[in-house]
């Protein structure tokens, strides 16, 4: 974490349901990266791992609410990817509180910002993230 103890957080957000205006993006807290995705259903678990290996202390995925997905099932697909990412992070020794998948109604950037603030507080309390070594044996 930086000298002012702000956590480094990566926010993946659906570009259709939760488009960020330039003003909203500029208002993101320091240490927050934003990755707009055409659909959160396209987020592969490796993207979450890459965020952590690149120095993120936490990752938050902001997906569309049920029945609100532009691509119809992206908000369902992301759930399977998030479960796999969480399992991989667990194997690497990353605290489960550092990764969240949340669902939001279209256009509710205010709710995303509130969730992001709460998530950042939780991640800050956990301190800097450290990936552990890969286990010798991984269950298939």
Q: What does this entry look like structurally?
A:
The structure is a single chain. With 140 residues, the chain is α/β, with parallel strands linked by helices. The chain has one domain (9-126): Rossmann fold (3-Layer(aba) Sandwich). 36% of the residues lie in helices and 18% in strands. The protein has four helices and four strands; from the N terminus they run E-H-E-H-E-H-E-H. It has helices at residues 22-26, 45-53, 74-91, 109-126; strands at residues 9-14, 32-37, 58-64, 99-104. Strands 2-1-3-4 form a four-stranded parallel β-sheet, with helices on both faces. Strand 3, helix 3 (74-91) and strand 4 (99-104) form a beta-alpha-beta unit. The longest helix has 18 residues, at 74-91. The termini are far apart. The model has no long low-confidence stretch (mean pLDDT 88).
């Amino acid at each position: 974490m930086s000298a002012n103890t702000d956590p480094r957080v990566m926010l993946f957000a659906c570009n259709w349901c939760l488009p960020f205006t330039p003003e909203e993006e500029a208002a993101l807290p320091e240490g927050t990266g934003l990755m707009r995705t055409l659909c959160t259903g396209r987020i592969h678990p490796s993207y979450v791992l890459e965020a952590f290996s690149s120095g993120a202390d936490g990752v938050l995925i902001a997906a569309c609410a049920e029945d609100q997905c532009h691509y119809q099932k992206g908000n369902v697909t992301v759930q399977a990817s998030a479960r796999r990412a969480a399992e991989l992070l667990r194997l690497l020794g990353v605290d489960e509180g550092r990764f969240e998948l949340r669902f939001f109604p279209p256009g509710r950037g205010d709710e995303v910002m509130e969730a992001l603030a709460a998530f950042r507080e939780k991640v800050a309390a956990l301190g800097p993230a450290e990936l552990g070594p890969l286990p010798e044996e991984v269950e298939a």
